[in-house]
Amino acid sequence: MIAPESSQPLLNQSSVDRDMADHSFHDEGREGDPPQSGQGGDIDIDMNELYNEKTPIKSAYSYEFNERMPIEYYRCFQRLPKRYIVSIMIFFGFCNIYALRANLSVAIVDMVSNRSLTDSNGTVQYFQEFDWNSKLQGVILSSFFYGYITTQLPGGWLATKFGGKVLFGGSVCSAALFTILTPLVVLAGPSFLITLRFIEGVCQGVSYPAALVLLSKWAPPLERTRLATFGYAGAYAGTVIAMPLSAALATRVGWPSIFYVFGTLGVLWFVVWWLLISDSPTKHPSITQEEQDYILTSIGSGDDVDATRNIPWKSIFTSGPVYAIVVAHFCQNWGFYTLLTQLPTFLKQVYHFDIDQAGMLSALPYLVMAIVIMSAGQLADYIRAQGKLSTTAVRKLFCTTAFITTTIFLIATGYAQQWYMAVAFLCVAVGFCGLAWNGFGVNHLDIAPQYAGLLMGISNTFATIPGIVAPSIAGVIVQNEVCSSKTRRLSSIQ
Hints:
- By secondary structure, the protein is mostly helical.
- It is 67% helix and 2% strand.
- The chain has a two-stranded antiparallel sheet with strand order 1-2.
């Protein structure tokens, strides 16, 4: 349990002995109060019953409850609810973010490939456009994460203070602009490319905390998992799009086109984001009164509360649930970042695929992962709504299943004798890893909604360490050439 720093309890006393997912912080001066709608009127719904998981959620959050602020489902086809638009735009935002992050993993394969040149005498000369060994490539690929780690916690604080719209949108737009500059900067030398990737990491570091702050204002409790994980799935959809498209651009147009195309898409997304998104339902100019009442009655507006004042830092850093999130996030990212940066090279060197084939096959595991994340989000909320399992049990079940299955199939990948076996094992391993996002990935919102951005900043700070370490370790292990014994070592470490 997370205890408050001040003498005045921050937790609703009726929920002190809830499960981990219900240890919610509340602002001082509002002890025991349910979230308010911000409209100045009284709320006649027992919010203590609504948030008390000892009573099945279904009975407290039933269809009859929704009838009191009706949202007619047929109208969704005519006018999409704004909270869904927020989730969809976060999806495409992460799609851009991970496309900008992953495109270098494919581009670098083409940049260091052997090329042939036939002179006037008919002599064939072989050369590399960029003569970078695997160790230097590992440093280049990991440099992004050195910048990424620096803005996690500041990003959480800034998003909590000023709102997620500016930070999340600015994160994508600034990274996109720097990506467009990449082909020019790389000509100056690897040190300049490393510096640029570091700056891109700094820009993108605020993205997850900012997205979680937005979701804390827009996602009602029983839609929390599906709205959050749908947004997260954009990261893997972006990887699916980026890898084969980057490979196609590299072979047909040239590797510089990769950075121009994805950078331009990021800027276009930002324009749409700025026009459609608001920080909270109370600030949205065109939200329906029914939807606004539904969201505010469920979670409150929080617009009049400065969550950055009197932050219970001691309680946060002595909380068991917070450390459980950190460990799970770290473990999930270790395997993900290793595969993200090394999978195209692995397929090219071990199974001798060309860059087009490597890009297409590298995308398959992330396609499976995106599908698993979104479908598992629906399943998790269904189980919670039925009252069959508590929120804590759902989070633990999904995380445990994800990590056990991923471990087994990643190790099996190192022993695969045929390429299709390796790809199949990777699809299962990476796909099931998506279940974890329905566990730890949403748990920040469960245990402390108003500090969710800060908690994401903390957990993602530690979870970024694998992005720095894993590519470098992989580069050292396979410094000259990938062989089966080295592949098995790499799979076991993951």
